[in-house]
Amino acid sequence: EVARDASRPRIRSLWHSAARAVCCNNWCGDLRNHKKCAGQWCWNRSEKSSGMGVRKNGNAASDGDDTVKLQRKITLVNGVALIIGTIIGSGIFVAPAGVYVSTKSVGVSIVIWCASGFFSTLGALCYAELGTSVTRSGGDYAYIYAAFGPLAAFLLLWISLLIIRPTTQAIVAITFAEYAAKPFFDECRPPENAVRLLAAVCLCLLTAINCLSVRWAMRIQSVFTAAKLVALIVIVLAGVYHVGTGHWENFEHAFDGNYEVTQIALSFYSGLFAFGGWNFLNFVTEELQDPYKNLPRAIWIALPMVTGVYVLANVAYFAVLSGVEIESTPAVALTFGVKMFGRWTWLVPIFVALSTFGGVNGILFTSSRLFLTGSQEGHLPDLFSFIHVKRSTPIPSLIFTCATSLVMLFISDAYILINYYGQILWLSVAASIAGMLWLRHKHPDMPRPIRVNTAIPVIFLLCCIFLVLFPIPTQPWNTLIGAAITLSGVPVYYLGVKWKNKPKAYHRYLKSLTIWTQNLFEVTSPEAAQSLSQS
């Protein structure tokens, strides 16, 4: 009877197609819950209302089978571009004074930039081990889940969804808009509404590109990463030229300054903040080609390159600008450009705009994968795990990421929110490293293609704990508010995740929303890797 029914062509709705499959002569409830039978996945005998058949999990090619899943389209070059592109934002152009202002020493500032790059590289090496042993996408969320369970992971997902990701994307998009509009407003700042509108256009455009193609998104990332490196090389060459003409005066007494421990710590804190993004490739490991080789390779290429460029750019700034000028200017690169580029100073805002545009793309790309993984683990509604049946792009997660960022654009206090999550970011990194050590103890036989010396994660973990605790005496309210926002996720977890017997009206609404989303975007649930709860 089932065979006869399967041979009869029918026109079915997309919901009907996504909800039924044939497996060992039994109807499965839906595609997310069907099981393997005799080693073979059941097949979906579905057709859309247009009459075009949609096989089980769609039409996307995937390693020669008929399943839809995230495709490994990110190459080594794309991985390097993703790391560099998310680390290098507006900071190196706008506010390198953050490192200098605490110590008042040119020499110590350069040493701290080198130390910050070295420290970030150590952390990235630890994440190389994590990314090749826990192979799910999601970065910190996946590692904390595997080590400490679902509640801890949900709290990180909660604060990322609520504040960290949308606020970061909105601020970087606003920075892009301000500097993209700057050449047209020489005598004043661009109008605030125009800046926010341009930032919204930037977010929507990049979201559309990410929805259409992973390869297009990665090409944009690679092109704009190359552009920002070229921009920094131009600044470095201008500094070399300035030094070559005999201007060494700013390097005299380079190591005179303030050597108080608290001031050096503040300077180091600012340097590490400029390297934020070194772990972003771990959020997309399921889409990285040959991750066991390319993840560590991308880290070894990207981190030394960023460190070298940052150090050389700061040397160029110090060669041209005095310490007083660096402290007093709101945008170091603009003051540098006025001195070195003359009537070509307008190029500097273009450099910053190119840098931040690529940064928005990288944050958007990785944020959507974080929410997709969270949905696959049951921490978000199922529709956030859906991907397009042909393009294999997580359209619902991308649109959700864009929408939350657009909301942040029009919250006047969005910049204040960024003060609340600096410690949370370092706490999540510390938890991931602690989880790595715990997994070594708990699962000593877990495959680890890369295993770093134990001293590296221990030293890095101690430094992360210091970075979490250090701001508490000076910013106690920020610490309390950040902790309160994070812990507000606990009742949400028990109501939204653990509570299984929700009202029928809730399930009907969610089902209707899921059907509507599938029909609108032609998305379906991908075949996920092993659940984190089973790893």
TrEMBL record:
What Gene Ontology molecular function terms does this protein carry? L-amino acid transmembrane transporter activity
**TM segments?**
76-98, 110-130, 142-164, 194-214, 226-244, 264-285, 297-324, 344-365, 398-418, 424-440, 452-472, 478-497
Q: Where in the cell is it found?
A: Cell membrane
InterPro entries, per database record: AA/rel_permease1 (IPR002293), AminoAcid_Transporter (IPR050598)
Q: Name one Pfam family in it.
A: AA_permease_2
Q: What is its main location?
A: membrane
Task: Specify the protein's topology with respect to the membrane.
Answer: Multi-pass membrane protein
Which Gene3D superfamilies does the record match to this protein? Amino acid/polyamine transporter I (1.20.1740.10)
Sorted keywords for this record are: Cell membrane, Membrane, Transmembrane, Transmembrane helix, Transport
One GO CC annotation, please? plasma membrane
UniProt xrefs under PANTHER family: AMINO ACID TRANSPORTER, AMINO ACID TRANSPORTER PROTEIN JHI-21
**Family to which the UniProt record says this protein belongs:** Belongs to the amino acid-polyamine-organocation (APC) superfamily. L-type amino acid transporter (LAT) (TC 2.A.3.8) family.
What's the protein name? Amino acid transporter
Name the source organism.
Exocentrus adspersus
